[in-house]
Amino acid sequence: MTTSRQMVIEQGLDYLRDVGSDQLCNICIANGGSCCKGCRNLSFKSGCRMRNTSCTAWLCGFLRYFLYEVDLLEEWHSFWKQVPGRDYREDYTPDYFEFQKTLRKQDLRFLSYELAEDLKICSRNNPEQGYIIDLRERIDHNLDLLFDWENKPEKRALIKSDLGALSSEFYRFHKALETYRQIKV
């Protein structure tokens, strides 16, 4: 089927809204971080002036971790792999292009709420500047390694152990995730 660049962006934003990305973004912003920091399209007091496919497709460490834990990260990546013309903060995607996969709408705000609450507690318990941003980056790095070592089960086991240690303070999220997985099965 044929779709438009704008439709893909809207579908991605709707999906992120449904999984509760805003709840996680608010934590980073409150702790001095933002995915958009330094972007030339960011306008003071009004936000993004030029949303594009690259920025919509990109996920921070917390969002990647969230989608990984709810088994939706591969779906997200498969969706965006079919979109041509993405580059770092740039968009060369044609106005219209052929498209096969769509994203399934899923309301997971209750889970992202629990992760956001855990992150708030982590922020209070670790008040040193940069803790939350560093945690986000360390989780993101471990997810990179996890997928880089896709064919090495022993390395993946170590990386999963590291992810477990990094997320050990996410009590509320892990409890809600356990319930979600039981219901999902």
Describe the fold and architecture:
With 185 residues, this protein is mainly alpha-helical. The protein has one domain. The protein has 9 helices and 6 strands; from the N terminus they run βααββαααβββαααα. The protein has a two-stranded antiparallel sheet. A two-stranded antiparallel ribbon has the order 2-3. A two-stranded antiparallel sheet has the order 4-5. A hairpin with a 2-residue loop joins β4 and β5.
SSE topology sketch:
Layout: E1 2-4, H1 5-19, H2 21-30, E2 42-43, E3 47-48, H3 53-57, H4 61-69, H5 73-81, E4 86-87, E5 90-91, E6 96-98, H6 109-125, H7 131-148, H8 153-166, H9 171-184
Antiparallel strand pairs: 1-6, 2-3, 4-5
Helix pairs in contact: 2-6, 4-7, 6-9, 7-8
Across the major sheet, the strand order is: 1-6
| Inertia-based shape | globular
Order of H and E elements: EHHEEHHHEEEHHHH
**Proportion of beta-strand residues:** 5-15%
Query: How many DSSP-defined strands?
Result: 6
Helix content: 55-70%
**Poorly predicted tracts of residues:** none
Structural class: mainly alpha
* Structural domain count: 1
Span between termini: 32 Å
How is the main sheet built? 2 strands, antiparallel
Would you tell me the overall average pLDDT?
Answer: 90
Helix tally? 9
Radius of gyration, in Å, reads 17 Å
Throw out a few tags for this protein.
9 helices; 6 strands; mainly alpha; globular; two-stranded antiparallel sheet; 185 residues
